[in-house]
Design goal:
single chain, globular
Length: 601
């Protein structure tokens, strides 16, 4: 009997494992079909590159609007749709509606999901009520709601399969990030660094929603899931208590380090990559030490969550330079060697190229020449400060002290690039990066922690660099040399995600509402069209019935557009963004629309 039971048990386990493997293989295979867009970034490597080439540098100027769709929601529309066969899945900001549309039936709405959420979550959402998109796998659509609920919806009907709570909005935790499905797990981060949340990356079972693992950004070794001897930082073991010994007392318990950006995955290495955000509070005097592992790139085992390597970009962050921006994975030659690379454009204004197998730091250079808080990263491997940025005292809010307004810091707190993802083309081996060209004044002050209340402790104002008027650039970057190849000026920050295509065209959106197409090699503008509202969404492409389409959400908002989105007028409101982007009201207005383009038939 025991043998029969054992055989039955093992058979059930094997069948379950096989079904997961099949589901995972299905998703991996689907991502290789350029006609669809099945993951938030198009692929596991976060390249936002499409092999579709019907639209080229020669004909993109003929693009026309093919169709439009109103989402019925205002505020900032980040992220973009998923396209799976004939179905398109479109999401919105709070209340986080999801529409499923049949592209073969004149874009008929097959189902709509609208969660019932407590509107009290809106005031604890830092920097607008955005959501960065849904994920797909195993016949399900996964949505991370503002109230931190992760929900699995039946992709055919929109009915809930399972739900799980990922945090406590009562204590300031919110959900804005897009899930990523890896093998039999759904990975999701958390927001709330401005409310003193101890943040984490969490994996849930794809089938049931059961917690698989949770790795915090700071705290004891078992909570942050590092092995003191096996987990490395710049090639050396992190050692025991690598996080808590860099915090004063129990400050790590309200330490931030949130994970609301993008996640990538290398199937060969079975590693997931993501970044952690700013430490709490924004007043550096209240949290002495390096505050590990906020502001950190993590490489974790997808099955167990255990960290293989970590790299902290901005120890003891003094400027709110979140490290959550995407990790773009590429296989390239450096110095005659084939390398598995990770390229990251950090908020702090430095672009990092690393070996994603080992965590070796290869390149760290400014990708906006106006960055002035640091003279660069110490690249001397024998130096005791190897890998650390060299801080300029004049722009150190720590050195200037509490209640002192440190002026002229570049970049501003929203960084040289915020969450808006870049793209990588294997054809040109260049990275296409939407950037902010903004500086700030930053005055830290003492703040007390109260659960569920803002825990910021700084007043900011933002403006273009001295002597300049434009607040954004769209650049092409060489990650091997750390050099800008070309740069296009934009009046406002470029807050939309880029798309690179095999047609030699790169697309992006502007805060005024333009979809733009440029030549991938030269940056020459080839096409632009004004959509109904400012674009902070990510440009997507797909093919249906033999025709290539370009799709983008417009709906002004996000941190840069929070003044418009939330009706704020105080220049220091929106953590300083309202005054910096006040002129945006002269160019666009609130909206919520998907605009889809194609060449004329």
């Amino acid at each position: 009997m025991r043998k029969v039971l054992l055989a039955t048990c093992l058979g059930t386990m094997a069948a379950s494992a096989a079904s997961v493997a099949i589901a995972n293989d299905e998703l991996t295979k689907m991502a290789q079909n350029p006609k669809d867009w099945v993951m938030p970034a198009g692929d596991y490597a976060n390249t936002r590159y499409s092999k579709l080439n019907q639209i080229t540098a020669a004909n993109v100027g003929k693009l026309q609007v093919a169709w439009t769709f109103s989402t019925g929601v205002l505020r900032g529309h980040e992220g973009g749709p998923l396209i799976i066969g004939n179905m398109m899945y479109v999401h919105t900001p709070f209340p986080n509606k999801v529409y499923a549309m049949d592209l073969s039936q004149d874009n008929k709405i097959v189902w709509k999901y609208e969660p019932k959420q407590d509107p009290n979550v809106i005031p604890v959402m830092c920097c607008d009520t955005v959501n960065r998109g849904v994920a797909y796998a195993d016949g399900k659509i996964f949505l991370h709601q503002a109230d931190t609920t992760l929900v699995a919806l039946d992709a055919k009907t929109g009915k809930e399969v399972w739900t799980v709570k990922n945090g406590d909005p009562g204590k300031g935790a919110t959900g804005t990030s897009s899930p990523l499905v890896v093998k039999d797990k759904v990975l999701i981060g958390i927001s709330g660094g401005e409310f003193g949340v101890q943040c984490h990356m969490t994996a849930y079972d794809l089938k049931t929603g059961k917690l698989a693992w949770r790795a915090f950004s700071e705290g004891p070794d078992d909570q942050i899931m590092v092995d003191p001897e096996k987990t490395t930082a710049l090639g050396k073991p992190v050692g025991k208590d690598s996080s808590i010994k860099t915090w004063q007392g129990d400050q790590w318990k309200i330490g931030g380090g949130c994970t609301w950006g993008w996640t990538s995955y290398d199937p060969e290495l079975n590693l997931v990559y993501y970044g952690s955000g700013n430490p709490s509070t924004w007043n550096p005097k209240q949290r002495p030490g390096d505050n590990k592992w906020s502001m950190t790139i993590f490489a974790r085992d997808a099955d167990t969550g255990m960290a293989k390597w970590v790299y902290q970009m901005t120890p003891h962050d003094e400027w709110d330079y979140d490290g959550v921006n995407e990790m773009i994975l590429s296989d390239q030659q450096m110095n005659g060697q084939n390398r598995k690379l990770l390229t990251h454009f950090d908020r702090n204004g430095l672009a990092y190229t690393m070996d994603r197998v080992t965590g070796e730091l290869l390149v760290a250079e400014k990708y906006d020449p106006k960055v002035n808080w640091t003279t660069g990263v110490d690249m001397n491997k024998s130096s005791p400060t190897y890998g650390r940025p060299k801080v300029v005292d004049q722009y150190s809010t720590e050195k200037q002290g509490e209640d002192v307004n440190t002026k002229g810091v570049c970049p501003a707190a929203l960084g040289t690039k915020d969450q808006q993802p870049g793209a990588y083309s294997p054809d040109t081996q260049l990275f296409y990066v939407p950037t902010n060209h903004v500086c700030m004044d930053y005055e830290p002050f003492k703040v007390n922690y109260t659960a569920g209340q803002p825990y910021v402790g700084a007043t900011l104002s933002m403006y273009p660099p001295p002597g300049e008027t434009h607040m954004g650039n769209f650049i092409a970057w060489d990650n091997k040399t750390g050099k800008i190849v070309w740069s296009n000026k934009e009046q406002f920050s470029v807050w939309a995600g880029a798309l690179a295509t095999a047609g030699g065209v790169v697309f992006y959106g502007t805060l005024e509402g333009y979809l733009k197409a440029v030549d991938a090699k030269t940056g020459k503008e080839l096409y632009k069209f004004k959509t109904p509202s400012g674009i902070i969404g990510n440009v997507t492409t797909y093919e249906n019935n033999g025709r290539q389409y370009i799709a983008v959400l417009s709906g002004v908002g996000g941190w840069a557009g929070i003044g418009l989105a939330a009706g704020l007028t105080d220049p220091t409101a929106g953590l300083g963004a309202v005054g910096g982007y006040a002129a945006l009201t002269n160019y666009t207005a609130l909206g919520g629309a998907l605009t889809v383009f194609a060449l004329p038939q």
